Amino acid sequence: MAIPSFDKHINKQALILAIESSCDDTSAAVLRGDVMLSNVMAGQQIHAEYGGVVPELASRAHQSNIVPVVQGALKKAKVESKDLNAIAVTMGPGLMGSLLVGASFAKSMSQSLGIPLISVNHMKAHIMAHFIQKEAEFKKVPEFPFLCLTVSGGHTQLVLLESPFELKVIGQTIDDAAGEAFDKAAKLLGLPYPGGPLVDKYAKEGNRNKFEFPIPKIQGLDYSFSGLKTSLMYFIQKNERNNERFKEENLRDVCASYQDTIVRFLLQKLKRAAKETGVKHIALAGGVSANSQLRNDIVALGKKEGLEVYIPEFQFCTDNAAMIAMEGQLSLNNQDYAKLSDAPKARFQGM
Ligand code: KG4
Ligand code: ZN
């Protein structure tokens, strides 16, 4: 089944190879139109022992991963490089050294094959992941206009999409990202990096009403998470004065209560954005959209408020090249090509 409103923006026959290397995952994917033929990933375990991503180690790991990952994506898709119509690559935001590895590789590949190079904004691609289809399996995609809550390790944004090309950031964090709030809390609780998935795991076995953390009071549709993390730090210190095993004994309840505060805060502003804009379709994107409470609670919010909810599949929540390929298809169809002189950018303003 086709969705005319989105299909008109892409060429269903175009074969695109995409490369993603903005942080600590090297990924390559092939899409024919909006259909995913492969999405290959190589993670980097090395950062866990340092409690966070070490940029220099990340670039080196990308260098050794990129050739096998790209070859793997082509092989899995049963596509030869000579059949490709374009190469898409993440040009930012992200870690400069990591971005450079992907961008340089993509540039040389597009040059040697004589096909267009397409520059992709990673944050926009997280949202476009909603439009990826799989062979022999049709998925319902968001209708425009829709609101997307994009929550990752580096960003927290409320985005209003009027069309695939008209995106407006209507709210964002003024300090830490939601993913950072999870990862920093995990570190305070003695859990390894990235801690978000572990907080989620322990929270499932805990009581979210056991402890109370203040929901940050921030104007309009913006967010702030740094105060929340600090309140957790003081909370742990205070309780450890009376019981040095407090963290171990209360891990599950602390995770559940802290996660509940983040999720309620995230959805409070999303609900407000839907009210203010009158938009009836809401979506989640980015690594934190893998969080089980956030996924459950947004569905409940949709039911209560009469909103249509779209949640990405797990494989498209965290960083992946299939989402880069999807966004690349939109630019390819518009003949919006990158120049060889275009350089990656660590930060992007707007969308
Ligand atoms: O989008 P992403 O893969 O990378 C960035 O672009 O930043 O997001 C990674 C973030 C990390 O902070 C990680 O802890 C968080 O997503 N994350 C989660 C979960 N899975 C990943 N946070 C909470 N619950 C999860 N299940
Ligand atoms: Zn990301």
How far apart the termini lie comes to 30 Å
Hetero compounds: 5'-O-[(R)-(carboxyoxy)(hydroxy)phosphoryl]adenosine, zinc ion
Structural class: alpha/beta
**SSE string:** HEEEHEHEHEEEEHHHHEHEH
How large, in whole angstroms, is the Cα Rg?
20 Å
Q: Tell me about the biggest sheet?
A: 6 strands, mixed
Beta-strand content estimate = 15-25%
The residue fraction in helices comes out at 40-55%
What average pLDDT do the residues reach?
95
The low-pLDDT segments are: none
Assign an overall shape: globular
With strands numbered from the N-terminus, the spatial order across the biggest sheet is 5-4-1-2-3-6
Number of separate strands:
11
| SS field, number of helical segments | 10
Please explain how this structure is put together:
With 351 residues, the chain is of the alpha/beta class. It contains 10 helices and 11 strands. The strands form 2 sheets. A 6-stranded mixed sheet has the order 5-4-1-2-3-6, with helices on both faces. It has a 5-stranded mixed sheet with strand order 9-8-7-10-11. α4 (122-128) crosses α10 and α5 (178-188) packs across α6. The longest helix is centred in the C-terminal third of the chain and has 32 residues, at 246-277. The two termini are 30 Å apart. The structure holds 5'-O-[(R)-(carboxyoxy)(hydroxy)phosphoryl]adenosine (KG4) and zinc ion. The site of zinc ion has 6 residues, from α4.
